[in-house]
Amino acid sequence: QVQLVESGGGLVQAGGSLRLSCAASGSIFRIIVMGWYRQAPGKQRELVATITNGGNTNYAESVKGRFTISRDNARNTAHLQMNSLKPEDTAVYYCNSVINGKWFWGQGTQVTVSA
């Protein structure tokens, strides 16, 4: 049974920083990509950032220059460093990964940025 568990969400003032972590566990043979998506109230889930097992990254335009995704392949973890946070970054952030050829989602962690 493969699981993704996120941590690190919380409440922060605008301009502040948070670091999210995602840990994959279970019977893992290969992780191709890990990433973060977010969903704000009343909006569709959107991609935030992804990173491949080779270290190639992709970011949403709205977070470029502020967010950094990283990955520890040995520990099957991914991190999202979020700086210069804005109120519009408020959302539930979900970890996503392709593991053993299948898509998996974490349970989500709330990020709230106050003005």
Describe what this molecule looks like in 3D.
The chain has 115 residues and is mainly β. The protein is built from no helices and 11 strands. Strands 2, 4, 5, 6, 9, 10 and 11 form a 7-stranded mixed β-sheet that branches. It has a 4-stranded antiparallel β-sheet with strand order 1-3-8-7, with no helix packed on it.
Kindly list the characteristics that best describe this protein.
0% helix, four-stranded antiparallel β-sheet, single chain, mainly beta
Radius of gyration: 13 Å
- Separation of termini? 40 Å
Relative helix content:
under 10%
Global outline? globular
Largest sheet: 7 strands, mixed
Summarize the structure.
The chain has 115 residues and is mostly beta strands. The chain has no helices and eleven strands. It starts with a strand and ends with a strand.
SSE layout:
Elements: E1 3-7, E2 10-13, E3 18-25, E4 31-39, E5 46-52, E6 57-59, E7 67-72, E8 77-82, E9 91-99, E10 102-105, E11 109-114
Parallel strand pairs: 2-11
Antiparallel strand pairs: 1-3, 3-8, 4-5, 4-9, 5-6, 7-8, 9-10, 9-11
